[in-house]
Structures are given as structure tokens and as C-alpha cells.
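[step 3/7] fold_predict: job queued, chain A
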Amino acid sequence: MALWRPSQRVRVVVIGLARRDDRLLVLRVLDDSGALKGVRPPGGGVEFGERAADALAREFREELETDIAVEGSPIVVENLFDHEGARGHEIVFAFPVRLLDPTIYTRPAFTIREDNGTVLEVEWLAANGGPAQRPRGAVSRRTPGRHRLNSRRFRIGDSMASARQAQPHKRLLGVIGGSGLYEIPGLTNTRWEKVSSPFGDPSDDFLFAELGRQPVVFLPRHGRGHKHSPTTINYRANIDALKRVGVTDLLSLSAVGSFREELSPGTFVVVDQFIDRTIQRQKSFFGEGMVAHVSMAHPVCARVGDAAYQAAQINGLKVVRGGTYLAMEGPQFSSLAESELYRSWGCHVIGMTNMPEAKLAREAEICYATVAMVTDYDCWHPDHDHVQVADIVRALLENARNACDLVREFVPLMKNRPATCPHGCDRVLDTALITAPAARDPAMLKMLDAVAGRALAAQAK
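[step 4/7] structure written:
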């Protein structure tokens, strides 16, 4: 067994706090004789030029062969300790994380082998004290945003409590832009990043940014330059990738036509119902080998919709709360007979993009709401044939400006949202997974690690 001694310089370390109820995932630390000395969460050193979160993801892949989702801000710890007569000094970033391999949550204990041949035992340890998380020594700790250091012993129970305190920071807003909306003025710390999904490529790179110091992720639904038609958009990849980066609340903005005289161009409709007439799209993450049935009786999150409605009112926009969105396949527009049929059904607006987007957001346990932006009347209207393309483009641009104003007000309204959705959007899979555990396809479960990882892990307990 290789003998480890602390480096004689300050070392930057990352660890991941993965929880299963009141238990923390830990590795057993042995002394030179092979006796148990303590335990530590998975993690390791940060290399020069490497971001802490990237180092943590690398360590989990190397040690446990799983990807992770970081679910909050780190707790920063200064750790001074003695190990086998050598003094160690570390700055530790402790991140709350979720394991994207749900099978690890079901394993009580197992072993792994490090690159140097060392065999480590992995277990879920109750967080009621227990051995020190690293070799014992004096520890100073600070929480994000505070600079006064308090000397104290940092133990498993402390790390768990701190991770729970960080939970309000883990919720992330996402915005999907429809036609004419590709940039949101007022964003800071912007960066475009490619996000991968097992369901294929999303519509475009994601724009990560902050608005009023609140993190936001923006995705152009059709891609920058409008390169995807409504039919060719990879809706599953879009929603899965948003879930993977931590999006919990999602606002969809879409251009629509109107079925109602009172819903004139420029009106914003906060939709609360859908009729899905699309026929060529993948509409579920689930299927052969892992079947699930979620309820779409109330297909949007009322809490997110209320915030969008309030944001529109603050900006003085013409906005209506409630309405039925008819999703058609496209890319052609409706015939007159279809338009009259949909009006007879009681529909309010017609568009091509919100289905299966809303269904997939529900399956992914993301709180989702739609703001439908009216650009023109559908062909039922007697003045429809007199509308010029320039009029529609003008409405698109005006709606895009108004949508930007809406988003700027919407984000701060969502700042104090509850940790769990009062309408249960973030827990719909608890009663939706049908396939018996023994009959589930491992390959499909791997693809569902982000969408259904929480529910699969909960069932495995």
C-alpha cells in the first residue's frame, strides 16, 4: 500500500457531499498499518488552472465512475491537521452534489481501487458525528460571503448541516426563447457553453449568465440564426440538458397566432392548458425498459405562471392569465377549416413549439410555464389575408423587446421561491414509474440519470 504524507505547502481540495436521507457517502481512510483512521467524502486535489467544480467532477469519475450534478454553493474550509507525524494545510471546497448513477444510492458498501493500487471502502455513513472527515486537526471554517474565521472541529454532521443550509442556492432559472428572442439585455457574467445530452444535441449552446446577481440559463429554442424548424428541434435533448445543468424552474417564451378577437397582436397570454396536435416528435423520455405515466391535467406550474403574469403587469404589458395553446406540427400554417375547428374547441392561441416541450418538462420534474406572445390573428380572422409580412416581423420585434422586459422583472420575483414546489411539479415521478425494478433496462436507466435520478434513487432506498 502506498504511504501518503501531506504536502508541505497549502493544497486546494474539493469534496462532494452526496446525501441519502441522513447519510453521507464517504471513503474510509486507513493509516500505514491498515487500521481505520477516519472517513472522508469523495474528492481530491485541484490542479493549477482547473475550476473547483470541474476538479470535483473529474474526481468522482475517477473514484466512483459516475457523473455528478453540483446542487449548491460550496462551503469553504481551512483544514490544518497532522497525519503520521507530518503537518498538512488544505483549503477545502465542499459542494453538495447529486450522483447521476442512481445505482450507487442502493449499494450499502463497496470497494474501489485508486490509480496507485490502494483499495478504498465506500459506504453511506450516518451523519451523527462519527470519525473526523479528514485526519484530525484544528479546522477553521467560513460560509460563502463571510470573511471572519471561526476555529472549530469540522465533522461529518457539520458538513451535512452546512449542505442543508446551502439548499436554497441550488434552484436555477431557465429561459427558453422562441421566435425573435435570442438575447436578453441586462445580463452579466455571460458565457456560452455546450451542454451534452444522451438524447442528442440541444438546439444550441447554453447562455449562462446572472441577472441581478441571480443565475439564469438561456436557450434559443430554434438556435441562433433560427436554424431548427419546430419539427426538427430536439426537445428531449433541450429539456434533459437543462435538467443536467440544474434548472429547476423554466419559463418558455413563444410566438403564437390568435383565435380570439380580444387577443390582438402584442398580447401576452400566460397559458394554462394545451392541446397537442403534433405527430412527428419524440414526446417522452420513457419507453421500452422503463415505463412512466405522468399527469398532464394541469400541465404548467401555477407558481411560475403567476410570477410571469405579475412581471408582465409590472411592465404595463397587455397580458391575459389563462388560455389554451393548440400545438400544431407545422411548419405550414393552418388551413381555414383547421382554424375554425380549433376555435370551436375553445382554443385561444396556436403555435408549433410548446409540445412536447411542456410534457418533457413535466417528466423531468421541472416547474414550467409558457408565455405565448401573439404576433397575428390565425387565418379565421377576416383581416388575415391583408396582413403583410412586415407587420408580422414588426410584431415579433416588439414582442421580443417586451419579453426581455418581462424576464428582467420575472427573475427577481422568483428569488424567494420555496425549496420544493407547492404544486408538486418537482415530485411527479414519485407515483409515475411503472416498470418493476427487475425488469428495468440498465441502458435506459443510464440515459435517465438526470431526468429521473431523484425518483429512481428514492425508490431504491
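[step 5/7] annotate
The two ends are 34 Å apart (CA to CA).
The longest helix spans residues 389-413.
exit 0
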